[in-house]
Amino acid sequence: xxxxxxxxxxxxxxxxxxxxxxxxxxxxxxxxxxxxxxxxxxxxxxxxxxxxxxxxxxxxxxxxxxxxxxxxxxxxxxxxxxxxxxxxxxxxxxxxxxxxxxxxxxxxxxxxxxxxxxxxxxxxxxxxxxxxxxxxxxxxxxxxxxxxxxxxxxxxxxxxxxxxxxxxxxxxxxxxxxxxxxxxxxxxxxxxxxxxxxxxxxxxxxxxxxxxxxxxxxxxxxxxxxxxxxxxxxxxxxxxxxxxxxxxxxxxxxxxxxxxxxxxxxxxxxxxxxxxxxxxxxxxxxxxxxxxxxxxxxxxxxxxxxxxxxxxxxxxxxxxxxxxxxxxxxxxxxxxxxxxxxxxxxxxxxxxxxxxxxxxxxxxxxxxxxxxxxxxxx
Amino acid sequence: xxxxxxxxxxxxxxxxxxxxxxxxxxxxxxxxxxxxxxxxxxxxxxxxxxxxxxxxxxxxxxxxxxxxxxxxxxxxxxxxxxxxxxxxxxxxxxxxxxxxxxxxxxxxxxxxxxxxxxxxxxxxxxxxxxxxxxxxxxxxxxxxxxxxxxxxxxxxxxxxxxxxxxxxxxxxxxxxxxxxxxxxxxxxxxxxxxxxxxxxxxxxxxxxxxxxxxxxxxxxxxxxxxxxxxxxxxxxxxxxxxxxxxxxxxxxxxxxxxxxxxxxxxxxxxxxxxxxxxxxxxxxxxxxxxxxxxxxxxxxxxxxxxxxxxxxxxxxxxxxxxxxxxxxxxxxxxxxxxxxxxxxxxxxxxxxxxxxxxxxxxxxxxxxxxxxxxxxxx
Lengths: 378, 378
Hints:
Two copies of one chain form a homodimer. Chain A is of the alpha/beta class. Chain A has 15 helices and 17 strands. In chain A, strand 14, helix 10 (about 255-260) and strand 15 form a beta-alpha-beta unit. In chain A, helix 7 (about 155-175) runs parallel beside helix 8 and helix 11 runs antiparallel to helix 14. The longest helix of chain A has 27 residues, at about 330-355. The mean pLDDT of chain A is about 95. At the A-B interface, helix 13 and helix 14 of A face helix 13 and helix 14 of B.
């Protein structure tokens, strides 16, 4: 018998909050950052290192996995947890965002989105019911409704049309999810672009349908950072306090702190691994481009006080060399550095919220980013 | 005070032998396989995983490291052990082989080889004295003489000219090495192509110069496997029994067993990592091409009885998926599988030699490779 899905608030500090999501595969401490395991792997990083970095949960992409190796194949192999050997919580998205961003040809109709697979060119139909079926087959602890994501800026009419369609799909997903095994959760996704009224209407309607948690979708799709923050600030109060809130696809460390301050509980983003592969390290001292020539002779680690071996033990000179020499180990090490830093940031936020000092924590963290303490002392 | 370099034979079984090389950075159990860390990193694999796989020693490439990031830079950063954070024994080659295989333009004269750097096009002069200086700067426990390596097949006159030059360079390297800190070792390299008399003459002359160990070079350069095995069998008796013998750049698991049977103590080769990146796994059941479609639904690990987590814990279906999806983790996991298997093969050889049953061990191992036990049972 699987443990039921639940969310427990532990402390609130202004709008920021810390809590625990319980799933059949374990507890997720919130605010939580979810590393992205698009194709059943976090790019370039071994699962053991993802776990050691402090991750409670990872994200899997329905779009990629349904196309390759296929949901049915993963189900036959015991589900995504067993397939990728990640026995901890997994959230899967619904595929809607990737259909928009990756598929060369797509057509959105009331029943479903039809698109051309980027893997083999096959025509694929993804309905709300199929998106849920796939996520049930994958065995994810938290499934997401299928939605239509609109790239910003967009005309208000287009934003509203997609938001209304996403709402109708939300209801169909809810019904389809009745067949899910006990203990699994389904989240609704607030759409509405950069329009206050549409976001409010979306949130209200989703609450009426009723979900285990609520995501804010359709952001980090081209809008300015201040637009994103404004929408988050406006939308959060429209969501039920007793359910987890998930800001999809966001973001930089500064984005995360800003969103936690406004009451967001969960995040996912490819930035830590993508930037790591390209030589950008996130540290307590801000972002460091390890490919810059100034690091070539620097014997210091990225952060000698870090608990992350990759940040603490290797010299900047060595990491610089790995990137200059094209050694894949460089990207792996910096991805680990970044995943660790993101988890450390969330752990710091949780501890600060629990003791009512989140605003100080955020201010001090941002000050340290710009202190240039990473520069050589001579 | 560094411990002196020494070699101790523990047991002999026919021509095969097992022993221990002691260095300032620890003991190397022989027969030993050295993973190749060309540019200060074993491609795609974290040093911790190289060590966990059972490696006592790794190889660094003088040619690559002198060009980037440069020997002087590595020395300023504390030497290669500190730079790459491998506190165990390191052997460096002399650069001669890479000059032949990688440099677009090169000219070999009595004083030195002059070549165009493949990194930045600069003209570089590598003399025997400079090859030793670079290796002293790197801080390697075992340095190799500079030699000229000839690709086979080649005219006898050309092979002899290169062999005689390599001998004169051996003497110059020996003199230059007098400035090395205590505890470091220098190996000579037998050349002579596929010519019995030249190999014997080379070995004899190197013994007269006197080295801490002797390598057989100029093999795995295009000759047939049986040619390589014949030359090894003929050359080993000409080398002193009380010094380690190193077969450079070899080879497949079968090559290793054949060479151990003839009295070789040390190996290096890029095969485990290169083949791993390309989807070929070395296992007790022979080589497995994980990209083959037959593995797509196979829930079994590569080897459920292996002590290697990558071979034991992940399904073939998952590893197959990682390669099909282009996830770098696949190459990393198979590189670890292969490094582990090579070390396991050497550990098995050492144990068998110690108890006088190496011939049985080799025969059983080869039989298992061809038993097709890796095929699905249904």
